[in-house]
Structure to design on (357 residues):
């Protein structure tokens, strides 16, 4: 019996403009995963933070799809996000099969999917983004779907909102869209990584523990209780999206850095404004903010531009952006203030475990 298999890999993406809304950090539709504001992120291009997924379709498999994450079987819940993605991919495969009756009817065969993360899962390092993106990419390759990456992002979005952005490299926007069926809530590449090759990122792993509040439940609590969120959605993010896209187009690091840091702080302020408050940053995260702010202040006083920008997702781990020429000073400063040694008690020893771009 014929067997068909495909492997795909997707990296994490780290938001510069965090989306916080009545559906992303708030969703306007929790089933379709529609955000209430657009967002923009940078997809990391090296291999440090990556999900790799292999999908296989085989007519001889017992009925029902099965999924393994890091070697452990995960239940594919009926009506759950993974099932929704697989159903949507099958529907597009069936269209291919109906058009060309000579192709094998893979859509009717059970799937076996194995996915591995080469970094801690659910620790605020965007594992759901890379994981769901790799799953959608892998099955779409297996099914040889003709759809574009933006069209596939419509499906990845329903697996995990931020996953839609991980289907692209470089600088990626998730356009929130306005259609109630979600047909225009998709990701587009704002610029490829070659556009700004000097842009580098340093990942500072403060803690690889699973986070206490998942993004999904955290953002729903924020939507239900935060008044600051409403201000952020209406009056802050739309303008910032335009500004950061202009900064990327012009390769204007100072503007990119200022917007990224302000938006990270705005997002964590909204988490704090949630009832009960959500604390994703810890003392080490705040110390990293202080160090970067001081680096930048000293540079500006000397008549130079900003050296680095920090951003934190839903966890304590920092992503520091800097131009290549400034990365050595950033790495040295972080190593100086947060020595990477196992003699230090947690969480210090985890710092700066991974450097990538
Ligand atoms: C982002 N985050 O823009 C923001 C910043 C975390 C903070 O997207 O419920 O794991 O699966 O759609 O995609 C994390 O949200 O949430 C996220 P679901 P997801 O990257």
């Amino acid at each position: 019996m014929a067997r068909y298999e495909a492997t795909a890999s997707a990296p994490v993406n780290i938001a510069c403009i965090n989306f916080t809304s009545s559906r992303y950090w708030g969703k306007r539709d929790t089933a379709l995963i529609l955000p209430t504001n657009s967002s923009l992120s940078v997809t990391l291009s090296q291999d440090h933070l990556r999900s790799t997924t292999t999908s296989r379709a085989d007519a001889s498999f017992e009925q029902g799809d099965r999924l393994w994450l890091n070697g452990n079987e995960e239940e594919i819940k009926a009506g759950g996000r993974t099932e929704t993605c697989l159903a949507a991919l099958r529907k597009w495969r069936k269209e291919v099969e109906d058009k060309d009756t000579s192709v094998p009817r893979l859509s009717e065969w059970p799937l076996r999917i194995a996915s591995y993360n080469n970094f801690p899962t659910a620790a605020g390092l965007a594992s759901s983004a890379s994981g769901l993106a790799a799953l959608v990419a892998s099955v779409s390759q297996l099914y040889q779907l003709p759809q574009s990456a933006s069209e596939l992002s419509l499906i990845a979005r329903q697996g995990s909102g931020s996953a839609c952005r991980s289907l692209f490299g470089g600088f990626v926007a998730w356009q929130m869209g306005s259609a109630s069926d979600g047909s225009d809530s998709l990701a587009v590449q704002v610029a490829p990584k070659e556009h700004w090759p000097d842009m580098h990122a340093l990942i500072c792993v403060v803690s690889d523990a699973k986070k206490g509040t998942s993004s999904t439940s955290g953002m729903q609590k924020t939507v239900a209780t935060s008044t600051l969120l409403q201000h952020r959605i209406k009056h802050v993010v739309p303008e910032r999206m335009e500004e950061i896209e202009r900064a990327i187009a012009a390769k204007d690091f100072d503007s990119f850095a200022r917007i990224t840091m302000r938006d990270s702080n705005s997002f964590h302020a909204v988490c704090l404004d949630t009832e009960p408050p959500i604390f994703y940053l810890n003392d080490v995260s705040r110390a990293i903010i202080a160090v970067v702010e001081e680096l930048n202040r000293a540079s500006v006083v000397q008549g130079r531009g900003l050296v680095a920008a920090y951003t934190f997702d839903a966890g304590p781990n920092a992503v520091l952006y800097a131009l290549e020429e400034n990365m050595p000073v950033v790495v040295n400063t972080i190593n100086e203030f947060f020595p990477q040694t196992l003699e230090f008690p947690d969480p210090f020893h985890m710092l700066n475990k991974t450097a990538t771009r």
About this structure: Residues 15, 18-19, 33, 39, 41, 128-129, 160-162, 215-216, 313-314 surround 2P0 (CB under 6 Å). The longest helix spans residues 227-250. Residues 50 and 118 are 6 Å apart (CA to CA). The helical segments are 81-99, 127-142, 149-159, 215-225, 227-250, 253-272, 283-301, 327-337.
